[in-house]
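task queued by scheduler; priority normal; single chain, no ligands, no partner chains; default sampling; output format set to structure tokens
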Amino acid sequence: MLTTITARLIAATSLIALSSVAMAAEVNVYSSRHYDSDDALYEEFTKETGITVNRIEGKADELIARLEAEGENSPADVLITVDAGRMVRAEEAGVLQPYKTDEINKFVPEYLRHPDNLWFGVSQRARIIFYDKDRVENPPRTYEALADPEYKGQICIRSSSNVYNQSLLASIIEADGADEAKTWAQGIVDNLARAPQGGDTDQLRGLVSGECDIAVANHYYFLRAYDEDVEGLSAGIDNIGWVWPNQSGRGAHLNLTAAAMAKSSPNPEEAQALLDFLTGDYAQYHFANQNNEYPAVPGVGLDKDTARLGFFVPDTTTPTASFSANAKQAQEIFNAVNWQ
């Protein structure tokens, strides 16, 4: 059975108890996650610590703009985004501060956190290659191979404004260089089956409808079609195969749900307690069990649905911080090759 909160969280909440006699402890979270399953996560945190979680949800860019506009008067304590690429915008806006403990760094690997402790990953999302089993005999085995002329007119993928694609291209810039990354992006545009449109689920639906033969999507959109009836996808899901890319090289690209402490946090001890909690056993298993994500902390077991896709080698050599650092250059490349 999983343990609850580690000693580091107990110590933090003890300090909060001593300083919160006249006022009930609370923490204010600005989050771009929109999953009902997160309610149970925060309820467990409150149960363990007595700290009430007040959550405001919205798109990451809107939340960052709100933080910037509120300035020193912002009530936000913690910012959570669904991709590390969004954190570069928060960094540029100057709305973050380093988290106050090195304990997080003992649990979250270095490549999954900011080098100056401005943010860290709490869960991972693999961006992988899917294909129609009947129409594709030799699916691409790497991200780079998606640009091969062999796959001309076959690929469905989201628009360049999608942060998952921005982070993927940013990782290719880091791994292969900007020139190779631009060649790759041009190859994808040349191989499109249709103009980029919709979300990740729509790319997978394109395989079922026959609009495309190969699609790029985050892994959990595929897994959801097993757990529930997803229109236009579940009925044809057994004919969809998948490839874990770059398994003989740098490994599969994973983007992050990332957490950070807001610069003007009015409740820094409570904020730190929540950040510690997010790397604990309960939270890490919750991400895998409730939303089919991969934990950020090594050694946490997966539930059977998340494990359905099997073992894979993740990219642990490309620093996640490079997704943010290369984001501007990635967008310039997208624009240059007319990736809509």
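post-processing summary
- The chain has a mean pLDDT of 90.
- The two ends are 48 Å apart (CA to CA).
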